[in-house]
Specification:
The protein has about 140 residues and is mainly beta. The protein has a single domain, classed as AOC barrel-like (Beta Barrel), CATH 2.40.350. Helices cover about 15% and strands about 60% of the residues. It contains one helix and eight strands. The chain has an eight-stranded antiparallel beta barrel. A hairpin with a 3-residue loop joins strand 2 and strand 3. The chain is globular, with a radius of gyration of 22 Å. It starts with a helix and ends with a strand.
Length: about 140
């Protein structure tokens, strides 16, 4: 009986230490990243500008590599360059619904530990200003660990 009690106390102690040593992840901060595609320098590549608000208050330029997937879907890799560093965002989009999902996978400078994800909407002519190839609005949550 004494041995079982000691074993239970040991297990409780290990559980307590394990739970307290786990790093608690915060809830993140809401953010919106709006990319405006202005140029198509070569097939499958778009360039332009972006503005990020909320958890990311910055702006800069971007390069987007576009890969068709199936009949109506796209997989895009955005590299956003701001004064504070760069970050890379992946998107999977439907041309039928003009919606999709995104996630930030890496960064440099201030954005080395940046992560985030959310949903997106796309707009193309005639619903964008003259000279603009498309606008994508990414809303979600970001973490700057």
């Amino acid at each position: 009986m004494k041995m079982k009690l000691k074993l239970m106390m040991l297990l409780l102690g290990v559980s307590f230490i394990s739970l307290n040593s786990c790093k608690k992840r915060d809830n993140g901060v809401p953010a919106t990243i709006t990319g405006t595609n202005l140029n198509n320098p070569k097939p499958g590549t778009l360039t332009g500008t972006f503005i990020a608000t909320g958890g990311l208050n910055t702006s800069g330029t971007h390069v987007m590599l576009v890969q068709p997937v199936g009949v109506d879907s796209l997989h895009c890799t955005w590299t956003m360059t701001a004064r504070e560093g760069t970050f890379v965002m992946l998107q999977d989009c439907s041309l039928t619904t003009m919606t999709g999902i995104w996630q930030i996978i890496s960064g440099t400078g201030r954005y080395t530990a940046l992560r985030g994800n959310g949903t997106l909407t796309m707009m193309f002519p005639p619903n964008v200003p003259p000279g603009v190839l498309g606008i994508e609005t990414n809303t979600g949550t970001v973490w700057l660990h």
